[in-house]
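Quick one: structure tokens for this chain, please?
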Amino acid sequence: MVSGVLGNLAQRSRPYSPHILVLALVTGVIGGLGAIVFRWLISVVEAFVVWVVPSHTVSPSHLLIALAPAAGLVAVNLISHYLAREVKGHGVPQILEALALRGGRIRPRVSFFGILAPAITIGSGGSVGREGPIALIGAAFGSLLGQALRLSERDISLLLACGAAAGIGATFNAPIAGGFFGLEVILGTYAMGALVPVFLSSVMGVSVFNAFMGSRAVLVTPPYHVVNHFAVLYMIALGVLMAFIAWIYTSGLTFSEDLFERMPLQFWQKGLIGGLFVGLLGLLLPQVLGVGYPTMHEALLGNLGIGLLFVLFAAKLVATLVTIGAGGSGGVFAPSLFIGGMAGGAFGAMLHAISPALAPFPAIYAVAGMAAMFAAAAQAPFVAITILLEITGDYRLTAPVMAAAAISYGLYRFFTPYSMYTVKLSRRGIVILRGQDVRPTDQVTVRTQVDRMTRERLPGETPSGEVYEILTSADRPYALVTDEAGEVVGLLTLIELVHALNQPGSAEKPVREILAPMPRPIEADASLDDALRQLGQYDVDALPVTDRGQVIGVISRSAVLHGYRHATLRTLTISRQIQELTEDAADPGQFFDVYLRPASPVVGKKIVDLGLPQSALVVAIRRQGKAVIPHGGTELEVGDRVVVFASASGEVPDLRRRFEG
């Protein structure tokens, strides 16, 4: 498993230097200009589509409208397959991957194709947003600027976050939310060493954008007032609902990508099928095509009926998942706002239908639904709250927006630990660790370090002196004590036994009489971090380990530390190997994952026996939903999801066939 630690800025919050502030300003200017150019390019593509599909025609127009998203997705698939694979997807995961694995370094070509590919997707009607690509454009420039000046990885990463903040701030006319996006979503830290440059870059990006495009709120709302004193309770209920919808959205992104990946078709054929589906859906509901801000505005004005709100919610969700799964390039930020706005608006409309006094202004719930959806799906509550207040320009909605966003953000973690930005990376074995979450022990299970102690299971009637001889001769510090039925009733440590044997006549006593109460067992699928916490809580040196209610062995402090050391060294080794493989190559390499079915030729083989080329590296294995740290002796099993890194992208098809057959 490759663990990207993005919390280093939080751990080492040293003061920023003046030259970083200057570079942050420059990055902000380019981020704002990049947002302008991207908007213009989208309009060019849209104008081309309108020219090809004249509005005054009848039936031919319908066919061509349906074909436009398909043509766009085929073109984007060609770009991502042959020219720049980083542009495939929704932008922010590519930024996080660059931070986690490459010290913030992004290839120069991403700056160009990162504008072109999503502009084609959006302009042709693909159901994605422009925010992720704009963040990638700004981040790419910040990264290139840092690389050109030969700055440290820390400073390159900081400029990358500055560029992303400038892009987000500019496109939403939201400098505060843009800054929080760079800190909360990209860097995962609020350290002062990052805060000032990132916010400075966001403000500069917004200023440049407004100088050319004008300054106005993106989604202006009427002057709503929260007149119902129980409205906060309804907002809490909305937050619960949005946490569940956000989980469906995040899970749907991976499901859709997996579905299209497993189709036995060429990459361009997948884009054609996905684009046709979106185009046909757009014939029925044109509102789901493109970004969808006009429709969101109508929802905030309360101009959409409850039935249409429900239909648009479902249709936009499906259209976005299909667009991304079929290889589209664009953001998932704006679609999450659209989905949340429609769901929240429907929720408010239902309350209003039950009783107008419950929700005199039902459209308020559309605003809160947007914030709650993004707060949960992106795991970024500060961004969600500030961006909705800034893009609507109505700060009287602060309380309801905060209530819904806070609840949805907290409950979402019960469904999944991954956000819509990190879930795709986690499937490829890249786990983003940041701030307080930098714990390698949280990524390794107890099962990997359990001592099963099959021989050191002693009946409770065994004399204590005999147990001492058994343990010392076997050089084992623990023994599991069983009752007459063979069930484990206690865990005896050698230290406890020695203390007991200091008493006269204790050597003849049955070991059950000196047995201390058994500490609470820990599940085999719990993490080493949980084990370490429980060892400290009970102040013991070892814990019994259970699997499906049965004690299977023991885990000790030393075993936890060994697992921690092994995981850390493995992570560092993989990171170093990847860096060595790509250090002098123009090709940054590619991660890909394969699912091992019974017919796979590698099932039952050890990694060392696979005969992989030196340019390929197995970096992670997911087995039954758990992480397995790979090494040469790891034997592959049916159902494993194996993540492989190939330093030469052209080798991926051959390597994939080697694993899948």
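Residues 231-264+284-437 form a domain with the Clc chloride channel fold (CATH 1.10.3080.10).
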